[in-house]
Every structure is written in structure tokens, then in C-alpha cells.
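Progress against Task 2.4 (sequence-to-structure conversion) is shown through the following example record, which the project officer requested during the mid-term review.
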Amino acid sequence: MKQPEIILLRHGETKWNVEGRFQGRLDSPLTKKGKLQAKENALKLKKNIEDFSKIKIFSSPLGRAKETAFIISDILGVERKTIIFDKRVIEFNYGIFEGKIRDNILDTEEFKEREANKWNFIIENGESYQIIQNRVKDFLNFIKDEKIVIVIAHEMVNKVIRGLYCNLSEDETLNLKQPNSVVLYLLNKKELILN
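C-alpha cells generated for the chain above:
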């Protein structure tokens, strides 16, 4: 499949990131540090790209990604109304784990079952990585004719975007990390870190 260049960002740090809570489709506000990360990421974009007028910005519609997208667009001088909020890059649905502190559920049967088959296990009232992959494939097909896009999303969905883009195995995809302060540039089936 033909692919555009993708600049991939994660939303800034949130209150629940600090607390170690599963967010999924629930939301918590960006922390002061999270807002600063969004600003710093925007400056990295500004340093590496001259013209944003023909680059489409896609964002998850969740509040933390939306707030990050607005901070970035303001710094880049891009009108907020041009941001495309796309449900296909919304975060992993953690179902019954959402809002719970990770350390408090590590010993539950459902969490252990999920860890044993992370790619295919569907959390109660939630989803699996396989389900995310299906919607991400649809998103990548939708943007295939673009030259370059900016995507502001979440750690789990970004793992799947990176895995598909770089032809990684399921295990390699699951092991990917993206701190809130890292901007990735996906190009020719490889990824670089933008500084």
C-alpha cells in the first residue's frame, strides 16, 4: 500500500498519566508539563518543516489529543478549524479497566488473560489490538494519497500505526514506546525522531 510521510505525535502528559490510570476513551486534562510538551513538540515541527499550508493535521477527537492539537496548531499558525478529528485514531478502549489505577488490577484474572494474549484479547466492554489494527488500516488507506500528514493521537494507537507503516510483527509492535515528548517521522517504511 502506498503511504504518505507521517509525522506522529502523542498528546501531552495528562493527570491520569501521572496517576498511572488507564485512560482509554475516558479523559483527563493535560498537566502543566503536558502543555509544555505540546509546545515543545510544535517547535520541533516548526524547526523541521517550512510550509504547513498543504499539510493536513489529523487528531483523535478525545479531549487530551484535541487540546494538544490546538496548542500545536496555534504555534504553527494553522487555523484550528482545519484540524480533522478522526475517530479511527481514537485511543484503545480499555473497557472495564478505564479510570482504574494500573497497579490495582495487575492481579485480576482478566488482566492476566489479556497479558497472555495481548494482541487478540478483547477486554470486557473494550477492544483488542487486532480491532485497533482494523480501524488504523482503514485510516492509512484513507490518507494514502497525501504527501505528508501530521497525526496527533495516543500511545496504543500510535504503536499500531507504526507497526503497520514499518511492517513490524505483532510482538515488535507491542514493544514500541512513545513518550509524550517524542515526535516521530515515518518515511519509506522507517521512523526517525524529530529534534
